[in-house]
Design goal:
The chain is α+β, with helices and mostly antiparallel strands. Helix content is about 45%, strand content about 25%.
Amino acid sequence: MIVYADVLIFLNLIINYFLLLAVSKILKKTPKTRWVVLSAFVGALSSLYIFLPQTSFLIETLFKIAVSMLMSIIAFGFKGVKAYIKSVLLLFGITVGFGGLMYAVWLTFSPNGMVINNSVVYFDISLIALIGFTVAGYIIFSVLFRIFSKNAPLAQRCDITLFVNNKNATLTAIIDTGNSIEDAFSMGEIIIVDKSVAIKLFECEDFQINLKTKSRYRMLPCMTVSGADVLEGLRCDSAEVKYKNQSITLNRPILAISKTPLPDGSNALINPKILN
């Protein structure tokens, strides 16, 4: 079977891109798209390793680790030795897992148009089919990751102090990996709070018509387990998040008012992206 280098690089570019997205989801990081694409391209170039003579398992492993190290620093940067090693190990593990899955398919079904050499996989399939399978795999991963994250036995917590005019309130917040609500207009940070918190800060209950809060008022569309919904939102002046040894200041974040009690005795939920 003929293996075309340009097709090989392009196919691996797409696969590597979604593998990096999976790593970023686990790390709770939002790297810039251009760096993710560049990292995926570097990884795709390494797939040319398929054209070399068959090598030993040790050499293949060392080569994969070296590629993972390069891809990780391009996509996620260097934020300390511990964070870097974690990103490398995650990328290496996910890549090996994907390669192992493809190898199992190859051994079990022996599909036409599939070649594996030096642990590099080549598919002779249409571009549309490849993109479809890759995106479907990433969606399945994202759904499973969200389910297991939300069902974790103990969610991480942090302290948040909200400032509105001359008033402030300090809350205990859960870092909620399933919280993806965003402000569609300003793309600012969203903090989900109990209604009692908003009433205390803004000293009113009907936020939409009250003169004190009318200019701060927003309607925030969101998705819940029961379907689409809309939450009331109020922009506060600033917020300070304290998590471990970090202190993060948010400029004019929006408080989304929860319609249901918040879990585990907390009075706020934040997206982990805020901590990055």
